[in-house]
Write a structure and sequence with these properties.
Blueprint (H helix, E strand, L loop, with lengths): L3 H4 L3 E2 L13 E3 L2 E3 L4 E2 L3 E4 L2 E4 L8 E4 L3 E4 L2 E7 L13 E3 L10 E3 L4 E5 L1 H7 L3 E5 L10 E2 L6 E7 L4 E5 L3 E5 L7 H5 L8 E2 L2 H37 L1
Antiparallel strand pairs: 1-18, 2-3, 4-15, 5-6, 7-8, 9-15, 10-11, 10-14, 12-13, 12-17, 16-17
């Protein structure tokens, strides 16, 4: 019998729309809106402390999840949501309250930016407690919701020699692309090494449902623990 983890096998880096490789924009009705990348103001961990991602320069070293300090090889900066009236709600960014993803302060994420989440559900479903998924799959989880765009947003994309996951706003984790986007030719070459895996949107939404159930079970367990302690306190008091 196929295990659940095999049924929901993660795939090589794809965005929520099914495009392979690095994608920093999507085309809808003639209007281009960036849907992945880090938003200026996001604090990332570097060799000299936490810094605004927009202040980084090529060559600066950033703390990565798997490979320690790594130099940034290229930085792409662009503006998005410059024409608010033509941005459909499906492309709006997401507001993430403080603490929802381990972030110390509230932050804004683009909908297709891959986010890494640590959970017991990930371990049970995929054999790995750390799971990458498109941010938009998290809508409705721990207060994460769509945020109406009221002004243009500067987007910063950090490129490393290889794909990396970096720390943002103290405790959150975000995927960053390699210097070169994955191409069909690259896939056919022996030197190609598969990078991080990102859940498809369908898989990610199933996973978030599991996270919500896990949180509900944890809450019920904590409530029962409180009631038990209360009963014990009343017993000793009497």
């Amino acid at each position: 019998m196929m295990k659940l983890g095999q049924m929901l096998r993660k795939e090589p880096v794809y965005d929520a729309g099914g495009r392979s490789g690095v994608w920093d924009g999507t085309f809808h009705g003639g209007h281009v809106a960036l849907t992945s990348g880090l938003i200026a103001g996001m604090q990332v961990a570097t060799s000299i402390g936490w810094r605004d991602v927009a202040a980084l320069q090529e060559g600066d070293k950033v703390l990565t999840f798997d490979e320690g300090m790594q130099p940034v090889r290229r930085i792409t900066k662009r503006w998005t949501y410059t024409d608010q009236s033509r941005t459909p709600a499906s492309l709006w960014p997401l507001h993430v309250p403080a603490g929802a993803l381990g972030n110390r302060s509230a932050m804004t994420l683009l909908p297709e930016q891959p986010v890494m989440v640590e959970s017991d559900a990930g371990e049970a479903m995929f054999g790995d407690p750390f799971t990458l998924m498109p941010a938009l799959a998290l809508e409705g989880y721990k207060g994460i919701e769509r945020e109406h765009v009221r002004k243009p947003i500067e987007v910063v994309i950090l490129h490393f020699d290889t794909e990396q996951v970096v720390f943002g706003n103290i405790g959150a984790l975000f995927h960053c692309p390699a210097e070169e986007a994955v191409t069909i030719a690259g896939l056919m070459e022996d030197r190609y090494v598969p990078g991080y895996e990102v859940l498809s949107l369908t898989q990610a939404r199933m996973f978030v449902d599991a996270l919500i159930d896990e949180d509900a079970q944890d809450y019920a367990w904590m409530q029962e623990e409180r009631r038990q302690r209360g009963r014990e306190a009343r017993h000793y008091a009497s």
